[in-house]
Amino acid sequence: APGTRRDEARELRDAAARRVEPGGRPLGSSRIEEACDMYARAANMFKMAKNWSAAGNAFCQAARLHLQLQSKHDAATSLVDAGNAFKKADPQEAVNCLGRAIEIYTDMGRFTIAAKHHISIAEIYETELVDIEKAIAHYEQAADYYRGEESNSAPCPLRVPSCPLQVLCPSSPRVPSCPLVGTSAMDSPLLKYSAKEHFFRAALCHFCVDMLNAKLAVQRYEEMFPAFGDSRECKLLKKLLDAHEEQNVDAYTDAVKEFDSISRLDQWLTTMLLRIKKSIQGEEEDLR
Question: Which GO MF terms are attached to this record (predicted)?
Answer without folding.
Answer: soluble NSF attachment protein activity; syntaxin binding
